[in-house]
Amino acid sequence: MYIPASVKTSFPYCLLGLLLVSAASALALSSDQDQDIEIDARKWELDDRKNQTVYEGNVVVTRGSIRMTGDRMTVYYTENEELDTLIVEGNPATYRQLPDDSKVYDEGRAQRMEFREFENLIILMDDAEVVQERSSFSGDRIEYDTKLSRIRATSAPASTEERPDADGRVKIIIKPRQKQAED
Q1: Regarding beta strands 135-145 and 43-47, do their DSSP bridges make them parallel or antiparallel, or are they unpaired?
Q2: Of 7, 45, 137, 166, which is most buried, counting CB atoms within 10 Å of its CB?
Q3: In terms of residue numbers, what domain contains 51?
Q4: How far is CA 137 from each of CA 41, 103, 106, 134, 145, rounded to the nearest angstrom?
Q5: Which backbone phi and psi does 78 adopt, to 5 degrees?
Q6: pLDDT digits (tens, 9 = 90+) for 158-181
Q7: How far apart are CA 126 and CA 112, in angstroms?
Q8: Residue 156 CB-density burial (10 A; 0-12 exposed, 13-18 middle, 19+ buried)
């Protein structure tokens, strides 16, 4: 497939933009989709044959209130040049975003995060944790269905050889609502 040089340099940004608009729109600050996308990395590579772009070396992606970081980010797209999957890997990879009507950022971290466009799915794997305004949950794998607003956390059975402190359980913490100060 031939892609003109001018398109090759902007295409990965367009793909990432599609991802950040659709995958996170249910939680995002509504003005995020109107903001520029900025990607900062030490290395960038486009591979037309594999339909992928790879960013490496302290990767930082920002768009409005959205900020993602990792050691490596790989963007896969379909033959029709549509976004398929975005994978951020790090130690840890992080994600944060300010929801509408909130002053507190939603935050996530994991060794690997996958954003699957066609499935409307965000998956955090390996030491995954999500913190929202009143709750936090952690496990080996956290899946968030952006279309159905459904979250599922699971943990792998504990392996004392790999992680001696792991107990193979999901942990959820729910903070009580703050009482409004009376006038």
Answers
A1: unpaired
A2: 137
A3: 5-174
A4: 30, 20, 12, 11, 16
A5: -80, 175
A6: 554 555 455 678 777 777 877 665
A7: 7
A8: middle
Distances (CA, A) of 170 to 151, 157, 161: 13, 10, 19
Q: Which two tokens stand for residue 81?
A: 């040049």
Write out the two tokens for 122: 């965000």
183 within a domain of the structure (yes/no): no
Distance CA(142)–CA(131), nearest Å, equals 12
Residue 166: DSSP 8-state: -
Give the span between the Cα atoms of 76 and 51, in whole angstroms: 6
Report the C-alpha gap between 37 and 25 in whole angstroms: 15
**pLDDT tens per residue, range 79-90:** 888 878 889 999
Structure-block tokens of residue 30: 């509504």
Cα–Cα dist 62/49, whole Å? 28
Q: Per the domain annotation, does 39 fall within a domain?
A: yes
Phi, psi of 116 (to 5 degrees): -100, 105
Domain of residue 13, CATH code: 2.60.450.10
Strand partners, 135: 174
- Confidence (pTM): 0.71
Residue 11 host element (H or E): helix 5-22
Contacts for 117 with CB less than 8 Å, ≥ 6 apart: 18, 19, 22, 23, 82, 83, 84, 85, 86
